[in-house]
Amino acid sequence: MSDAPDWHEDSPERFFMITGGRAGHVEHAALGLVTLILSKAAPKPGMSLEQASVLRLCRSPLSVAEITAHLKLPFSVVTVLLMDLLSEGNVEARSPAPIPKSAMPDRDILRRVIGALQSL
Amino acid sequence: MHSKVSDPVGGGQLAGTADDPIGEDALPDTARLGVKLVVAGAFGVGKTTMVRSVSEIRPLVTEETMTQASLGVDSTAGVETKTTTTVAMDFGRITVDEEMILYLFGTPGQERFWFLWNGLFEGALGAVVLVDTRRLEESFGILEKLEESGTPFIVAINTFPDSVSYSTDEVRQALDLPPGVPIVECDARRRDSSRDALLTLMHHLQKLADASELP
Ligand SMILES: Nc1nc2c(ncn2[C@@H]2O[C@H](COP(=O)(O)OP(=O)(O)O)[C@@H](O)[C@H]2O)c(=O)[nH]1
Ligand SMILES: [Mg+2]
């Protein structure tokens, strides 16, 4: 298939994620485990149960990881749900894209995290 | 206003209390930046314990399903055999301030799957590698992979009742760690001790940030 995900050609084994029959079709680089999701709409008739559940869970901001935990669904499946909800404007994704591997974390982020840990 | 019998959302009624799945774990509406740290280490070394010690929520589990397809000699015909594996990670959460939320992920047992789950180390500020001195060799693979991926880390020695006590220098030598990588002792069951290990990582990250700014 031409729409296979990006794997290492030289690897003896190939791995990809199951996404309800849509493996590899979705660009979900923008959605990480700690991206915060917030509902922008109430569940509507015609939505899937899972989409409606996401909207209820995210009435206050919630990470993608927490959504997967509460729905008991794999990350890649939740990602597809969220991409659909995002494209219809039913949710907002709040975190910026993940920090690039090579870049050092922002100094301001480090300072704030240290402050929070010190007061644990 | 036609009402479908199969309407999966039901009446769209939102106000009920049974309809409040997050409850007191709800984040403030101002939360807008999620950041993460990884707690890595071999099976049984105390990762879940550390996450639980510092988390403000009961630790949760996130899963990813992987299909492993073995490739034939001629792969153009497509996938030949498949096995499905579920990789699970537990994680916890610390609210940093009204905007920033810190997540701590414990790595799954099967380390060979870590880097197949895109996003596990991607975007992580850094990692605490827990080691058990009774079986240091089980940490070699993990350390190697962290170095490969360029994820900054520190090493925390978890002491168990029957552990032989080694100096941090001995552990550094046994693990072949560069001098710049901090090593601390910790008890993952204790909140203050776990917090201090995380703080050691954060100060290490600050040092690295300082160094990267030098001309
Ligand atoms: N003595 C001691 N026991 C620990 C420590 N950390 C974890 N344990 C125990 O070791 C066992 C395995 O810990 P767990 O967190 O499940 O390990 P994981 O597989 O790395 O997640 C549990 O019974 C813990 O209570 C520690 O720092 N000291
Ligand atoms: Mg565990």
UniProtKB/TrEMBL annotation, chain A:
Domain of life: Bacteria
InterPro entries: DUF742 (IPR007995)
Protein name per Swiss-Prot or TrEMBL: DUF742 domain-containing protein
Organism listed in the record: Streptomyces aidingensis
UniProtKB/TrEMBL annotation, chain B:
Region (Disordered): 1-23
Keywords: GTP-binding, Hydrolase, Nucleotide-binding, Receptor
Keyword Nucleotide-binding: yes
Domain of life: Bacteria
SUPFAM superfamilies reported for this sequence: P-loop containing nucleoside triphosphate hydrolases
Pfam families, per database record: ATP_bind_1
Nucleotide-binding found in the keyword field: yes
Gene Ontology terms, MF aspect: GTP binding; hydrolase activity
Signal peptide: none
Family (UniProt): Belongs to the GPN-loop GTPase family.
PANTHER family assigned to the protein according to its UniProt record, in alphabetical order: ATP/GTP-BINDING PROTEIN-RELATED, GLIDING MOTILITY PROTEIN MGLA
Identification of the protein by name: Signal recognition particle receptor subunit beta, a GTPase
Protein's organism: Streptomyces aidingensis
Lineage, broadest ranks: Bacteria, Bacillati, Actinomycetota, Actinomycetes, Kitasatosporales
